[in-house]
Amino acid sequence: MDAFFASVEQRDDPDLRGKPVAVGGAKKRGVVAAASYEARQFGVRSAMPSVTAARKCPDLIFVKPRFEIYKKVSAQIHEIFGQYTDLIEPLSLDEAYLDVTENFKGMAIASEIAEAIRARIFEVTGLTASAGISYNKFLAKMASGYNKPNGQFVITPAKGPAFVETLPIEKFHGIGPATAARMKALGIETGADLKAKPLPFLQEKFRSSGSYYYWIARGVDHRRVKTDRIRKSVGGENTFFDDVHDLSEAKEKLAPIIDKVWRHAEAKALYGRTLTLKVKYSDFAIITRSRTTSHPLRTRVDVEAVAHTLLEPVFPVKKGIRLLGVSLSGFADRSDRADDAEQLSLAL
């Protein structure tokens, strides 16, 4: 979807149309969740601190997010997807992979399917969508951003390898800023440079990701569209209006985060063995601390106990804490659920 959250807000409020809009908090600790294309012209981007966004675009209009509305619109969009294929892999509320090799409409040309889906989305929701069409997930993802907004782009099998060779390494999906910097230090600036590196070299430098990089440099990606993606973690975090300096206050601030994470985990019967604490300081430095227990964390009390065990050694602090986060991972198989509560045993 094109600037999904912001586009929904502009659709529902005519006064916002044609204006720079940011969905998110306008306070000094706010973060932009989505920016309209009018705001993007000023350099406003998602995940940008609100104060930075406001500085870049003085006329920026901040709108509080309405996630329940976004979820309803997302459900409408996925219903449309389901009219064409049942091989749908959601990535987020506004993005998904579709395998249309075989489709319910019997259509032979993927680009025509994309056009039909985009037209139907606009008819039902009043919102525009863009599409990337290719023979694998990596190239489809890369293609999806080429003709935004309200467009589509095709990368055929004949053009795939050459397309990848000319791509700047920082544009590769799955290669973030830190990895791109490491690659550039190794002389890897483009897809052609990446392709020139042998597999053992990439495995040595990038471990398990080395094989993935080796193959995508050749336009090869054998990953299937997964209709049931396995959740690997459940987490939540809060940015505070004022920095936290005291342990008791930090525990107080951590409580609603734990509540949120536990509600989601319990609703999905996701009992993790590993808890990770995230701490972001006032200077934006980030540390994480993890603990893996011998048994799944099956109660909120267990989760809080481990979280406090990780939080306490962080204090006393020399600089204030602006954000705390908690995530659960290492989930037990659902068939491994115990009817009776197990005693918590920490692997210290």
Low-confidence parts, pLDDT < 50 over ≥5 residues?
Answer: 334-348
| CATH H-level superfamily title of the domain at 233-336 | DNA polymerase, Y-family, little finger domain
User: In percent, how helical is the residue content?
Assistant: 25-40%
Which shape, going by the Cα principal axes? globular
Class of secondary structure makeup: alpha+beta
CATH topology of the domain at 233-336: Dna Ligase, domain 1
Number of helices: 13
CATH class (first level) name of the domain at 233-336: Alpha Beta
Question: What kind of sheet is the major sheet?
Answer: 4 strands, antiparallel
Q: From N to C, what is the helix and strand string?
A: HEEHHEHEEHEHEHHHHHEHEEHE
**The CATH architecture of the domain at 233-336:** 2-Layer Sandwich
Spatial order of the strands forming the largest sheet: 8-11-9-10
Distance between the termini: 45 Å
Oligomer: single chain
Enzyme class: transferase
EC number: 2.7.7.7
Family: Belongs to the DNA polymerase type-Y family.
Catalytic activity: DNA(n) + a 2'-deoxyribonucleoside 5'-triphosphate = DNA(n+1) + diphosphate
Give a brief rundown of this model:
The protein is of the alpha+beta class and 348 residues long. It has helices spanning 4-12, 37-40, 50-56, 67-81, 110-125, 137-144, 160-166, 177-185, 191-196, 199-206, 209-216, 247-267, 300-311, and strands at residues 21-24, 32-35, 61-63, 88-92, 95-98, 131-134, 152-155, 233-244, 272-281, 286-292, 321-331.
